[in-house]
Specification:
Layout lengths: L4 E5 L5 H14 L6 H12 L5 E8 L2 E11 L8 E9 L8 H16 L3 E3 L9 H7 L13
């Protein structure tokens, strides 16, 4: 049986499901985001004026995964770049191609909307790298992160 999956823009009614998945995402990365930041992030994900946007995967009438993304300009290209900042699939729904479909959705959007590049990063030991490597092998860049 093939999973019937819909990938779409997040809607206000998705907030509870998104927050549950967001909490799981933060547990996975052993991190914590203050409630005021989570609320502000959700608001920006839905705002047409924001560079942030969210795509959700819906199966069997339930939101089972998401991507949080940042569309931005770059100095080496003329067309926008899309940074896939967060991708998460409910652990109970994994192994059904949902993560792959979420990435494919962004590739299709980017092709249609003329983005120059889609990129993301993850931890070296993330098991999802097997999936990511199906799309493109990791490059040799090292990330530096300075909190201000």
């Amino acid at each position: 049986m093939t999973l019937s999956l819909t990938i779409r823009d997040a809607q206000p009614a998705d907030e509870t499901a998104w927050r549950d998945l967001w909490a799981g995402y933060n547990r996975f990365y052993e991190s914590s985001v203050p409630e005021e930041v989570t609320a502000f992030t959700w608001k920006r994900l839905l705002s047409p004026e924001s560079a942030l946007f969210c795509r959700v995967a819906e199966a069997r009438g339930q939101v089972v995964g998401f991507t949080n993304n940042v569309l931005h300009e770059g100095t080496w290209v003329k067309d926008p770049l899309c940074y896939l900042e967060d991708l998460f699939v409910d652990p109970a729904s994994r192994g059904q191609g949902i993560g792959r479909a979420l990435i494919r959705d962004l590739i299709d959007l980017g092709t249609t909307r003329h983005w120059s590049r889609l990129y993301w990063h993850t931890r070296n030991d993330n098991p999802a790298r097997r999936l990511y490597d199906e799309f493109i092998k990791a490059d040799d860049f090292v990330r530096y992160r300075l909190s201000l």
